[in-house]
From TrEMBL:
InterPro entries: AMP-binding, AMP-binding_CS, AMP-dep_synth/lig_dom, ANL_N_sf. The lineage of its organism: Bacteria, Pseudomonadati, Bacteroidota, Flavobacteriia, Flavobacteriales. Residues 15-415 form the AMP-dependent synthetase/ligase domain. The keyword Protein transport does not apply. GO terms for cellular component: membrane. Keywords: ATP-binding, Nucleotide-binding. Pfam families: AMP-binding (PF00501), AMP-binding_C_3 (PF23562). This is AMP-dependent synthetase. The gene is fadD. PROSITE patterns: AMP_BINDING. One of its GO terms (molecular function) is ATP binding.
Amino acid sequence: MNVKRIFDFSALAMEKFPKEDCLVTKKNGNWNKTSTLEFINQGNKISRGLLKLGIKPGDKIGLITSNNRTEWAVMDLGISQIGVVTVPVYPTISEEDYVYIFNNSEIKYCFVSDAELYKKLTNAKPNIPSLAGIFTFDDVDGAPNWNEILDLGENDATQIEVDDLARAINPEDLATIIYTSGTTGKPKGVQLTHNNLVSNVTASTPRIPKEKGLDYKEVKALSFLPICHVFERMIFYLYLSNGISIYFAESIEKIGENVKEVKPQYMTVVPRLVEKVYDSIYNKGTAAGGLKSKIFLWSLGIAEKYELGKPKSFMHTIADKLVFKKWREGLGGNLVTLVSGSAALSKRLNTMFHAAGIPILEGYGLTETSPVISVNSFGKVKVGSVGIPLENVKVKIESDGEIVVKGPSVFEGYYRDEEKTKEAFTDDGYFRTGDIGHLDEDNFLFITDRKKEMFKTSGGKFIAPQVIENLAKASKFIEQIMVVGDGEKMPCALVQPDFAYAKNWAELHNVKISDSPKEIAANPAVKSRIEKEIEKINEHLGKWEQIKKIELTPKIWTIDDGLLTPTLKLKRKAIKAEFQDLYDRMYKE
């Protein structure tokens, strides 16, 4: 069948890949399966129930969940096929942002996952005139439950109305408004049509490798990146339309446990997760002691020297049998690929995972591009690049190095904001990504930095902070780092140490220290050791880029405290404000 709207993906799945485990969510220790047929039937019930509730095409409904789950997917289907617009929202944003987003989009109803979110929205509701009601997925005392909508739509006598509305929906109709998490300022409502998302799924599908001889009924993906983010949402549609069962992970904390239970072929990741997986592997390998640790460290040397596309050496084959095989088993043993997005992935780590038989395909995109602009693929990989642009996306590099794009997956504008929409496009209709990069002779795209994040020192030298930060995060002592110095005489950096690693180092070197992040950050010996790490990084930088001073922050940077975006990017303005005293200390005469 010809897929034109996002809800057509479920019909395609039913026609070509009917499964008993189309969607799977873990509850009370059990993986609960929803078949493709049941998924569609529940979506129809939601559609009929919403129509009885008085919802009309063009209305807006909010979706907020603390973790990915089957109910979210059912709601997305039921809402979209009657011409209603979904507004997926991050669970971790402030009450103030909820009020702004809900009022800006005039949300009529909202569906949330749990008691905590219900309380948060209930507190905000008096300031949101359009919000008529809040429903929960979990059973929450005193809260209307989403089952009430399913019950409203139980009778299929009105299904003809649902079908008529679905047929009337055009590919260019608005499907969703996704508010960008943003590192500064108020969130912007990115308007995405059915065609924006469908065209991106269609163009991205050939980049995902298929394992020969594998029955589609056996293929699984583990979904844990926030499904309210367009990356995971587009991938959800891609999985659905390719017969890949979607298992929703319980949480990022239980990802290690879930991956061993599910044994997936596919997962999407962000670089921070890859770094944490590697740290776990490294710590386990070096803690073994004796000959085992020596073999482990020897294998790392093999992995670091691996060249993609070239035959593996005899020594590499030995390392694979002794060490890398265990890496793969630790990730379920069935992985075909990990797809990485959101931020730059370390070239060293990417190479090592490829060497270990765990290929990571790094890609690039934005919410405004639905999201994929480019992605590596099997047979066409360059470590350090974000791959070749999709076949239906045109990419140009402006004179100042900014990447601009055009194609069917590019949004048409920000909701109710003509000024920002106009600013977002060039005179010839290309979307300004805000990223700096270049295309090489083979058309591989390389990202250098965020245009908005580059700054100039008082000496007139431009600094690209992400390049330096990515180098620094290769150090085991450094969990997070933010390079600063806009308008100052020199670059400096705020560093959040890996407190556990720093504590272990201190104990090995007889440095007396407690578990307190505050005490670890204030310890002169720890700071001195991390300064040595910075000196190593400076060797790879131009003189004007070298970090001259650092200060260690006495707390972990998290999403909940507003220092990281939900996709784990730095909120630079918030971090600077939080540690203003440390910033001032670095720039005192």
